[in-house]
Design goal:
Radius of gyration: 21 Å
Structural class: alpha+beta
Number of strands: 8
Order of helices and strands: EEHEHEEEHEEH
CATH topology of the largest domain: HIT family, subunit A
Shape: globular
Oligomer: single chain
CATH superfamily of the largest domain: HIT-like
Distance between the termini: 46 Å
């Protein structure tokens, strides 16, 4: 129990248990014993580090906590003095899953934290970073935003320098605007 799933600095942990296949198999879900001979399967239980922090079961340096969102300093990988992570208190994997109220509270805290970085740290601006969904390089599966204070000449580069290798998509403006107007 509590073993990191990936090598290196993992913030997602899991425990597992062996259970009879009858507990988890369901034809409609497409889960079937392998070759009909398997009697047990391993079920993983994921532990979310943000949820553990919110519940007080994991240590964190908390900059601020509102009734719906939290701002904390990352354990490792501080990109700049004052770099913080802002997340909703309720678990949402990413932008595609979060409810509007939790997202609103989270973004309001991102804005307040950005203003605090400018007013108290003398930051000239901030970079707000998020990765959501498969192939976005999301590494922690609880929605969060990195708020990184920026100064002139700080040496950071947070804007992609390469362009996507995905072919251009026909009528992209119409597709997006049509979906958003629904």
């Amino acid at each position: 129990m509590g073993t990191p799933l990936a090598s290196g600095q993992s913030t997602t942990q899991a425990s597992f248990q062996l259970v009879p296949t009858s507990w988890v198999t369901h034809p409609a879900a497409g889960i079937r014993p392998l070759g009909g001979r398997t009697r047990c399967v391993i079920v993983f239980h994921m532990v979310c580090v943000f949820c553990e922090i919110v519940a007080g079961r994991a240590p964190a340096v908390v900059a601020h906590r509102s009734d719906r969102a939290i701002a904390l300093l990352p354990r490792d990988g501080l990109l700049a003095p004052g770099h913080c992570l802002v997340a909703p208190l309720t678990h949402s994997t990413d932008l595609f899953e979060v409810d509007p109220e939790a997202l609103n509270a989270t973004m309001l805290l991102v804005k307040r934290l950005s203003q605090a970085m400018r007013d108290t740290l003398g930051a000239d601006g901030v970079s707000v970073l998020n990765a959501s969904g498969p192939h976005s390089e999301q590494s922690v599966f609880h929605l969060h935003f990195h708020v990184v204070p920026r100064w002139s000449g700080d040496g950071l580069t947070t804007w992609p320098t390469e362009r996507s290798r995905v072919r251009p998509i026909d009528d992209v403006e119409h597709r997006l605007s049509s979906w958003l107007e629904e």
